[in-house]
């Protein structure tokens, strides 16, 4: 049952809404939706945007096949033939803007903006959020892990524990964007050009009479790429001594043992002792690799203990974002095009954080020309002239007395045109370029915003016009609802 099609990868309520829009002849109305997230995951100070490549693939492949239509015909809703005909001719004809993958993003700022017929904009909500939420989450987790091991090799080992195949593949790509160097997943390697890496499992050792036989046999087949897993029986009494024997044998053949892998026990104690034994045997070039339910906190602590580990294999905790398994990104209607103008719409909530910010808006990153650092992100209406302003007032949208004026800045617009009238106008950078761009993004921010424990909150502010309009709409709707 092969299924690579994603058009029906949507919630039924989207189909029911677009059907009702069609019945009421509202389906061609142009609407604007913003996608954003509300709370940083893992207690981090930022998130790393990922998922755009998948979104672009999805939009480009958005057509209803005969099978899709037949399935809709089976539904109890008894959709009109005219609607199904409309779906047969369906293709995306709207505009999408998004921040580039690898961008550091912050709560409550639009990172994807869709302006399209409601018929199209509503249909794509589910899939767009699905891709954005998961991939951004994993890229952010990877970025946290990279932060605690800036110089080490980081290998993604999570496929066996991932939430199924797509999560493994696209999660691996996101991990690479966030700072990983390689993956054990061959398909991710093939698809995206991510370096594929691998050692061997306990089964290899258990399949031979002795550990030494197993190590020798492996080294004979892979003399220039041997990493030996040394913890099957007794790491320091058997595994490391046997690895040293193999290392010496490889030297005689003109090769070098590449590494040993520790996969259980006290990784600090074992790595220090293994390092000593290897060095004393003249094998100081042999790398020590660690795995076993690692995450940024364990790695950070191991480093603080002086563990002698050069390379980390990280699986479960990364690919499942185990300590924060969902990003919670949302997709909200913010404006309706009426007679050429954009009418803002708002969603109220008892929870102030859930009140939407109305209007057809864009986001700027305000970068000081004096020090090259980001001062804050600034959400303004699409037609506000932010770049030409000499002085900009940044104020907290909740605690408005908290404000500062910034002069001498560059206002860098974050949202890039991705689709125009249904045509892809954005050429995707290579994965290496995205990774490099992510590193540059990090250098824009003060360390206080980036630290992984209790970071400072980076300002995401509204222009005065956007703020005023939000306040006006809030009081207007409150009055209406109070009769
Ligand atoms: N020195 C250390 N300091 C902090 N955490 C460590 C240290 N050494 C290992 N760990 C981590 O502690 C956890 C211990 O896990 P666990 O008890 O499953 O390991 P184990 O019993 O050694 O091995 P296993 O059960 O997989 O054979 C793992 O996440 C591991 O990475
Ligand atoms: O621990 P993770 O971060 O998920 O990394 C992947 C794990 O997968 C392998 O273990 P395996 O499936 O053999 O099971 P194990 O946990 O018993 O070692 C490997 O030896 C790692 O321990
Ligand atoms: O190559 C490895 O050592 C590896 C790959 C996947 C999972 N665990 C380990």
TrEMBL record:
The keyword Cytoplasm does not apply. Residues 361-469 form the Nicotinate phosphoribosyltransferase C-terminal domain. This is Nicotinate phosphoribosyltransferase. Pathway: Cofactor biosynthesis; NAD(+) biosynthesis; nicotinate D-ribonucleotide from nicotinate: step 1/1. It catalyses: 5-phospho-alpha-D-ribose 1-diphosphate + nicotinate + ATP + H2O = nicotinate beta-D-ribonucleotide + ADP + phosphate + diphosphate. Belongs to the NAPRTase family. GO terms for cellular component: cytosol. One of its GO terms (biological process) is NAD+ biosynthetic process via the salvage pathway. Transiently phosphorylated on a His residue during the reaction cycle. Phosphorylation strongly increases the affinity for substrates and increases the rate of nicotinate D-ribonucleotide production. Dephosphorylation regenerates the low-affinity form of the enzyme, leading to product release. Residues 153-350 form the Nicotinate/nicotinamide phosphoribosyltransferase domain. It comes from Exobacillus caeni. Signal peptide: none annotated. The keyword Transferase applies. InterPro entries: Aldolase_TIM, N/Namide_PRibTrfase, NAPRTase_C, NAPRTase_N, Nic_PRibTrfase-Fam, Nic_PRibTrfase_pncB, Nicotinate_pribotase-like_C. GO terms for molecular function: nicotinamide phosphoribosyltransferase activity; nicotinate phosphoribosyltransferase activity. Keywords: Glycosyltransferase, Ligase, Phosphoprotein, Pyridine nucleotide biosynthesis, Transferase. Its EC number is 6.3.4.21. Catalyzes the first step in the biosynthesis of NAD from nicotinic acid, the ATP-dependent synthesis of beta-nicotinate D-ribonucleotide from nicotinate and 5-phospho-D-ribose 1-phosphate.
């Amino acid at each position: 049952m092969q299924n690579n099609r994603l058009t029906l990868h949507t919630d039924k309520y989207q189909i029911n809404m677009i059907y009702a829009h069609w019945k009421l002849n509202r389906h061609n109305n142009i609407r604007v939706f913003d996608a954003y997230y509300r709370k940083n995951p893992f207690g981090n100070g930022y998130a790393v945007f990922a998922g755009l490549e998948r979104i672009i693939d999805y939009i480009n492949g958005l057509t209803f096949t005969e099978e899709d239509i037949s399935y809709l015909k089976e539904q109890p809703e008894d959709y009109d033939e005219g609607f199904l005909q409309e779906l047969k001719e369906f293709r995306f004809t709207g505009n999408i803007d998004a921040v580039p993958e690898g961008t550091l993003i912050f709560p409550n700022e639009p990172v994807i903006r869709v302006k399209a017929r409601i018929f199209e904009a509503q249909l794509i909500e589910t899939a767009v959020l699905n891709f954005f939420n998961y991939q951004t989450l994993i890229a952010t987790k990877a970025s946290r892990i990279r932060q605690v091991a800036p110089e080490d090799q980081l290998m993604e080992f999570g496929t066996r524990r991932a939430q199924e195949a797509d999560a493994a593949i696209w999660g691996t790509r996101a991990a690479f964007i966030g700072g990983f160097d390689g993956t054990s997943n061959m398909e991710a390697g093939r698809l995206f050009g991510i370096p594929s890496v691998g050692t061997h499992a306990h089964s290899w050792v258990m399949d031979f009479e002795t550990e030494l036989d197993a190590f020798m046999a492996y080294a004979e087949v892979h003399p220039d790429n041997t990493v030996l897993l040394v913890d099957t029986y007794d790491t320091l009494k058997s595994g490391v001594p046997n690895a040293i024997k193999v290392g010496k044998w490889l030297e005689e053949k003109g090769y070098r043992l590449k590494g040993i892998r520790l996969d259980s026990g006290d990784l600090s104690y074992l790595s220090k002792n293994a390092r000593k034994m290897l060095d004393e045997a003249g094998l100081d070039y042999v790398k020590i690799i660690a795995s076993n339910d690692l995450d940024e906190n364990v790695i950070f602590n191991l480093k603080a203990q002086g563990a002698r580990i050069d390379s980390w294999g990280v699986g479960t905790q990364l690919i499942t974002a185990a300590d924060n398994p969902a990003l919670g990104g949302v997709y909200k209607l913010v404006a309706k095009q009426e007679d050429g103008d954009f009418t803002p719409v708002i969603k109220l909530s008892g929870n102030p954080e859930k009140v939407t910010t109305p209007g057809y808006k864009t986001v700027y990153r305000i970068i000081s020309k004096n020090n090259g650092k980001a001062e804050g992100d600034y959400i303004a209406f699409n037609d506000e002239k932010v770049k030409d302003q000499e002085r900009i007032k940044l104020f907290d949208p909740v605690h408005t007395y908290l404000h500062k004026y910034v002069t001498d800045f560059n206002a860098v617009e974050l949202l890039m045109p991705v689709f125009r009238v249904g045509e892809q106008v954005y050429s995707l950078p290579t994965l290496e370029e995205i990774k490099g761009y992510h590193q540059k993004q990090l250098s824009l921010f003060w360390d206080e915003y980036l630290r992984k424990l209790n970071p400072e909150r980076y300002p995401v502010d509204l222009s005065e016009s956007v703020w005023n309009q939000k306040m006006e709409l809030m009081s207007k709707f409150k009055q209406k609802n109070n009769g």
